[in-house]
Amino acid sequence: GESVGLHLPTLSVQEGDNSIINCAYSNSASDYFIWYKQESGKGPQFIIDIRSNMDKRQGQRVTVLLNKTVKHLSLQIAATQPGDSAVYFCAGKNYGGSQGNLIFGKGTKLSVKP
Amino acid sequence: GAVVSQHPSRVICKSGTSVKIECRSLDFQATTMFWYRQFPKKSLMLMATSNEGSKATYEQGVEKDKFLINHASLTLSTLTVTSAHPEDSSFYICSARATSQETQYFGPGTRLLVL
């Protein structure tokens, strides 16, 4: 079956360091992926997306890398700040669903140490 | 842009009563809206997908008579939890997807507590 998963449930980094959050997916037909940030008690917030015709996409302090060969994507956060502390979810488009909904990974909790 | 609101943000109700949660796309038209449920420290679980003007599609294991969904306009979808029980207590989150787009934007969530 199709799945999207995260390698590590928690990640602790020092303020100012770079953070890398990884995600693996199983359906090679997936062609669209999104990273979301969810703070405690709030809904997921869109960070960045990427289509399968790209290997890399950059936003403000964030970069998403997509490796279709090994079905892996990562989110890199530069100069991590305390405000980046949250749970990060990767999501992939579900081609098994009729509505093209997203399948979410389990989430990685990022903690930033001051 | 791409703002989605939910109302109420928090609700406490007695067992056996019904609760309605509204999801609105404020600055775009959402042909499709999704309803999720999230348990503490868990990922999002898709409950149903609603398309404007048609019946919602429910995921396996989700009771359609228990969780009534209405998507009457391109900016509003509602989820009604009927005859709520304590086990329905959860964080309910909606998302909206604009016409011909793939990105889903999420609402802030509704915390439901059934006593």
Task: Provide structural commentary.
The complex is a heterodimer of chains A (114) and B (115). Chain A has 114 residues and is mostly beta strands. Chain A has strands at residues 4-6, 10-14, 19-25, 32-38, 45-51, 56-58, 62-67, 72-77, 86-93, 102-104, 108-113. In chain A, strands 2, 4, 5, 9, 10 and 11 form a 6-stranded mixed β-sheet that branches. The model of chain A has no long low-confidence stretch (mean pLDDT 89). At the A-B interface, strand 4 and strand 5 of A face strand 5 and strand 10 of B.
Key words describing this protein structure:
heterodimer; A: 114 residues; mainly beta; six-stranded mixed β-sheet; five-stranded antiparallel β-sheet; B: 115 residues; seven-stranded mixed β-sheet; four-stranded antiparallel β-sheet; 0% helix
Q: Give the fraction of residues assigned to helices of chain A.
A: under 10%
Strand fraction of chain A equals: over 45%
Shape of chain A: globular
Succession of helices and strands of chain A: EEEEEEEEEEE
Strand content of chain B: over 45%
Helix count of chain A equals 0
Q: What form of chain B results from the Cα inertia axes?
A: globular
User: What's the total number of strands of chain B?
Assistant: 11
Helix content of chain B: under 10%
Cα-atom radius of gyration of chain A = 14 Å
- Alpha carbon gyration radius of chain B: 13 Å
For the largest interface, the chains and their residue counts are: A-B, 22 and 23 residues
Question: What is the makeup of the main sheet of chain A?
Answer: 6 strands, mixed
* Rounded average pLDDT of chain A: 89
Q: Report the average pLDDT across residues of chain B.
A: 93
What multimeric state do the chains show?
heterodimer
SSE topology string of chain B: EEEEEEEEEEE
How far apart the termini of chain A lie comes to 41 Å
- How far apart lie the N and C ends of chain B? 37 Å
Low-confidence stretches of chain A: none
Low-confidence stretches of chain B: none
